[in-house]
Give the backbone structure.
Amino acid sequence: VAIDGPAGSGKSTTSRLLAHKLGISYLDTGAMYRAVALHFVQNELLTSDENLSSVIDSISIDIKNNSVYLNDVDVSSKIRTQGVSNLVSEVSCLPLVRSKLVEIQRSISRNQSIVIDGRDIGTVVFPNADFKFFVTASIEVRAIRRYEEMKLSDDNIDINQIMKDIRERDRIDSSRSHSPLIKANDAILIDTTDLDIDQQVNRILEIINKQN
Ligand code: DC
């Protein structure tokens, strides 16, 4: 099941619960891009680094029990900070980063049923997915959701700044030349602006159950 959409659309929470209800695995590909961005932040690297190829080669990203590991260290909380959010769109424009992570995503998903969420899952990673959804919501609702999520790991956050950052991230994610955020032609649009989490999950479940 491929679930794509912009930041704060509710796709990660929905995907996690959906996978649980279906009794299958879940993969958050945004967490993988965030872990790579964290590596850049921690090592004060630039995306214009001359040795980009060896930098990317030296990074190991792993997902175990819904936690993300950067070079064998669990970074599941650290990847949710504003510093990482600010850099992640720039890092995820890099073709070398994308090809590395797409390969890991395909290998994790091989031979198992899985709900996988991101920006390019239905278009690039799994164009032949059995089910494709594009989840979206108004920018205001998305900023509030991201604020609630970030509050857990960061005391120093500002809702207006988050809204600005989301707008900027949408712009970069949607306009990059490599695997931009777009709805696949055959993806079903789910607008979650007025839906709570249970309603989002149930709407998707109903569609899957109807087609199965
Ligand atoms: O879903 P998220 O906000 O945690 O994703 C973080 C960033 O990672 C997002 O700004 C774009 C990028 N991303 C991507 O380019 N492709 C994916 N499949 C998933 C995320």
